[in-house]
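Human: We require from you a protein record containing the residue sequence and its fold in token form, and nothing else.

Assistant:
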Amino acid sequence: MRSNQPLVPSPPRFGQVLSYGVVGYLHIDEVIT
């Protein structure tokens, strides 16, 4: 889904990325468990 995005997310998008990361982490944890 990411396209030509810098390694470090922009400040305005940091919150979005962080939230998405948390959701993805929980989802992965559920899948692993």
